[in-house]
Design brief:
Blueprint (H helix, E strand, L loop, with lengths): L3 H7 L13 H22 L4 E12 L8 E12 L5 H69 L5 H35 L13
Helix pairs in contact: 2-3, 3-4
Length: 208
């Protein structure tokens, strides 16, 4: 298994604190909410009057008619635009955009409530799986030692073949249970990392 030694050596330091901002679902939902709200504000501005100011400056040389003189001109235009003809259409667009923004906010709030229990469930399954795996790993070590000891006794003629087969079967069962536990632990480790929005690649950032 790729993370067996890593989990064994750093089981106590596995990052178990939920960080909502790390999850891709939350980041996508937050970005969608922000863009929806920005679009709604833009649609609202289209309904409001706009005030524009234009300023121009010009200079004309009058040397040909009046030597050494020039004329400067200044012009300022203040315009007020009030939308009238497309008000119904623009208002409909704004209401649609506002509803979409509201739905985006509600979706983010729902997602926040969903992600927390999902992480807690993944965390609990991982911790239970970790505890079971470490116990079965310890049981495997004991079974292997018993088998090795009885195999030495068998070679000395101190135990029967049936006694050795019993220990061999016990060791085989312990190995299968340990393999099954490590398999489940790796799956739960991946789910815990995913629930926390962390990488499960070669660096395994779920483990500090």
């Amino acid at each position: 298994w790729p993370w067996t030694d890593l989990i064994k050596s750093k089981a106590a330091t596995i990052d178990q604190d939920f960080k909502l901002e790390n999850t891709p679902e939350y980041r996508a939902s937050k970005a969608y909410e922000a863009s929806s709200q920005a679009y709604a504000r833009a649609q609202l501005r289209r309904l409001l009057p706009s005030l524009d100011l234009t300023f121009t400056y010009g200079s004309q040389d009058l040397t040909s008619s009046l030597p050494g003189t020039s004329a400067n001109t200044y012009a300022g235009i203040l315009s007020l635009t009030i939308p009238i003809f497309d008000q119904l259409s623009e208002y409909s667009n704004y209401r649609q955009a506002a509803n979409q923004a509201g739905q985006a906010s509600a979706q983010k709030s729902f997602l926040m409530r969903e992600l927390v229990p999902q992480f807690e469930s993944a965390k609990l399954k991982f911790l239970n799986s970790l505890d079971s795996t470490l116990r079965r790993e310890k049981n495997l070590s004991v079974s292997r030692k018993l088998y090795d000891d009885n195999f030495s006794r068998f070679r000395q003629g101190r135990v029967t073949v049936n006694d050795l087969l019993i220990d061999q079967n016990r060791l085989s069962d312990a190995e299968l249970l340990a393999i099954e536990s490590w398999y489940n632990l790796h799956l739960n480790f991946e789910r815990l990392c995913h629930a926390n929005g962390l990488s499960v690649g070669a660096e395994a950032t779920c483990i500090r």
